[in-house]
Amino acid sequence: MKIAIIGGTGSIGKGFALRWGQKHQVIVGSREQEKARAKAAEYNGILKDYGFKADISGDVNEKAASEADVVLLAIRYGQIASTIEQIKPGLEGKIVISVVVPMEKDRCIIVPEGVPLEIPTNSREDYKADYFCYVTPPAGSAAQEIAPLLPERTELVSAFHNVPAAKLANLDIELNYDVGVCGNSMHSKNIVFGLVRDIPGMRPMDIGPIETSSMVESITPLLVNVAIRNHMKDVGIKFVD
């Protein structure tokens, strides 16, 4: 399978490229072609050192998307509209996976008793929280904001939100995480289930339709807060019964 990682030069993109590059043809996407190609060469070199003959290439986002079977959006929430506009012509009829999480620290405001809810902009610094929070998009989740921006025959799946980037990119570490998968088509979800299983130690969990994405996306800031406050690193999730 040919997988384009839009934002593939970032930390989470690196992890996916190294894990999927062992079995699939991966295209690292970036706004800058030279940067994409340099990172692709770096990832090929890492996998070669581990004994894998990888086929990772790099190109600008729009070309990467147009050449792939599956397109992974490993971008920041604020880049959604501009990135999809850039790659939209190459998304028709394909599966798009969103790992986007709208979380921030600066937007978390604690309002003490007696302070007006409408805090003046110049006073907001005094009320910022010291934890990360999920910033709920107007549509309900990042995935629900992405959905109407895609071509009609494109199938959207949201997944991999709670996978620690550092551990994903460290091939010396054995992973042991569950991955929540949300989507409206069992065809596309089954393909993503397979991509989850292609990463040793990962187990896919069907969460429901794309409307359930907010539940999974919002776990990420929770995990970050748990890690920071309890002196842990790269916290993930595992469901037990």
From TrEMBL:
<dbReference type="GO" id="GO:0006740">
    <property type="term" value="P:NADPH regeneration"/>
</dbReference>
<keyword id="KW-0560">Oxidoreductase</keyword>
<dbReference type="Pfam" id="PF03807">
    <property type="entry name" value="F420_oxidored"/>
</dbReference>
<dbReference type="GO" id="GO:0015677">
    <property type="term" value="P:copper ion import"/>
</dbReference>
<dbReference type="GO" id="GO:0008823">
    <property type="term" value="F:cupric reductase (NADH) activity"/>
</dbReference>
<dbReference type="GO" id="GO:0005886">
    <property type="term" value="C:plasma membrane"/>
</dbReference>
<dbReference type="InterPro" id="IPR010185">
    <property type="entry name" value="NpdG"/>
</dbReference>
<dbReference type="GO" id="GO:0016651">
    <property type="term" value="F:oxidoreductase activity, acting on NAD(P)H"/>
</dbReference>
<dbReference type="InterPro" id="IPR028939">
    <property type="entry name" value="P5C_Rdtase_cat_N"/>
</dbReference>
<feature type="domain" description="Pyrroline-5-carboxylate reductase catalytic N-terminal">
    <location>
        <begin position="2"/>
        <end position="102"/>
    </location>
</feature>
<dbReference type="GO" id="GO:0050661">
    <property type="term" value="F:NADP binding"/>
</dbReference>
<dbReference type="InterPro" id="IPR051267">
    <property type="entry name" value="STEAP_metalloreductase"/>
</dbReference>
<dbReference type="GO" id="GO:0070967">
    <property type="term" value="F:coenzyme F420 binding"/>
</dbReference>
<dbReference type="InterPro" id="IPR036291">
    <property type="entry name" value="NAD(P)-bd_dom_sf"/>
</dbReference>
<dbReference type="GO" id="GO:0052851">
    <property type="term" value="F:ferric-chelate reductase (NADPH) activity"/>
</dbReference>
<protein>
    <submittedName>
        <fullName>Coenzyme F420:NADP oxidoreductase</fullName>
    </submittedName>
</protein>
